[in-house]
Amino acid sequence: MKLAVLSDIHANYRALEAVGADIDDWGPDVVVVAGDIVNRGPRPVDCLSYAQTRAREDGWLLVRGNHEDYVIRHASPDAPREGPLADMFRASFWTYSKLRGDVGPLEAMPYGIEFGAALDAPVDEDPERRMLRLPALAPGAGLVRIAHASMLHNRDCIFPDTPDDDLAEKLGTPAPTLFCVGHTHMQVLRRLNGTLVINAGAVGMPFDGDPRAGYARCEFRDGAWAGELVRLDYDRARAECDFADTGYLVEGGPLARLQVIELREARSQLFQWASRYEKLVLEGVLSMDASVDEFLSA
After folding, report:
1. DSSP at 42
2. Residues 135 and 270 grouped into a single domain
3. Are residues 272 and 187 both part of a single domain?
4. Is 192 in the same domain as 265?
5. Of 23, 67, 135, 270, which one has the fewest beta carbons inside 10 Å?
6. CA 182 to mean position of chain CA atoms
7. Is the pLDDT of residue 139 over 90?
8. Beta strands in the chain, from DSSP E residues, in sequence order
9. Would you say 35 and 68 are in contact if contact means Cβ atoms under 8 Å apart?
10. 239 falls within a domain
11. Can you give the residue range of the structural domain that contains 276?
């Protein structure tokens, strides 16, 4: 039994095409996209369409990430349309606009997927916490659970150095035999007691200094799960050109400038910007443009 898990595409169509082709060459039985297909990148429509086509024709399974949530929130009548908060979320509003406000496909994605769980177990009534329960992947494969970040929240994540006690809580109960996530843009392969824990990293925007696209291969053989973390070269120059060619670099707001750097350097920029400037922007001390200029000049 072969399972491929990819995550954090972030509207990078060039990287997604390369990963999709490599997955086809490997020939897994099941493919799961663990969230963040759209947003934080220039080609959300192409990436969502690609994922939907693979789901329809090849059985790929799609999980909702926090960036799908960011886009969905723009459909609310209470979503800000002007002011500092609107400026801060201009990139996700650009994505929302490119999707023509149709967030239905994003809302339909489950919080996570469980293979081999009790199919008649109680269902969480919160639609944002809905788990898709499917039969076991193979005899003896045990419980396989896949979410975007962890079972605590789709932004409560697993890093390479997450302490064992914290990690155990993030796996959910009962503990699965295989647990796969994304969100951090950093790949992880480790074991905790009887669980193989894998962070597939990022297809579109890794944050570990290696700009190559990443995904995870999982294989159940000889009665146990094994994992492999894959990295792939792709046309990153064309991916960077997409930021300008699609209009995203200008229309997506000042933070799009930082996202180009994230793509180029494979290092997080938005988190560092937010920790230093988000409060100042929301208080009106600095404009978004001024805050990004100051951040880049530091």
Report:
1. S
2. no
3. no
4. no
5. 135
6. 6
7. yes
8. 2-6, 30-33, 61-62, 112-115, 131-134, 144-147, 178-181, 187-192, 195-200, 213-221, 224-232
9. yes
10. no
11. 253-297
